[in-house]
Specification:
260 residues; alpha+beta; transmembrane; membrane; transmembrane helix; coiled coil
Length: 260
Amino acid sequence: MTGGASFATRLGGVLAIMLLLGCALTAGLNYLKFERMLLEQQAKVLEILAGELGGTVENSLALGVRLAGVPGAQALLERARAAEPLIGGLAIADSDGVVLFDTDRQNLGTTVARALFDPRAAADAWRFRDGDRYGIGAPIVNGFGQLEGAVLLRYGREAVDERLTSALLGMVQAGLLALALAVPLGILGIHLVTRQARRWFAAVETAMQPGAAPEPLASGLQQAIAEADSVLSDAERRLEAIAATIPEPNAPTRLEPATP
């Protein structure tokens, strides 16, 4: 019976490992899906905000004001950043990439890298990476359809990471609850289902012990073993006979003399 319990325990262990791997795989795939979805959702919201800021600046340009002289542009950027905690920084650069307004004032007068703002490819809003931060650019176009500059919005993924951590904890808790219920029930089910098989294994083990009492099972096993031994011995003799008839590869070939 000890061997039978070990058999059921092994099956239960295999079931527990499979459930654990399944829960881990499900949690990992859901995490990646939620990450992609949340990042895309956040980017779309901030892209709309960047476009609205660009539209506000374009309204000032329609009055004949140059981009560098747009009144209240610096205050506009600072109010937008204060109103939206997702924003890490806002800047307005001209068509040459020179920063005219920036919520981080130490960047004023610097030139934006072409990897972040390329006037030749600024017909529509675009996205970029600036170190460990993400970014969105929105072009600023004057009334003649000419590119005057762009609004550059930088943001991090801290808010997304917080939501992902919360979702991951929820998935882990659900997975542990499922394992806590499924593993004991699975082991109990395996124990009940394999009851007959465990009894048979125990009977076979008892019958194969030396000095076991004569039983139909023991007699059947001994007869089956004897028949298998006879078949194997006969096969071995046949193989030896076949091997004896095969000539050795290095044996010299005897040449018969030619007849006149």
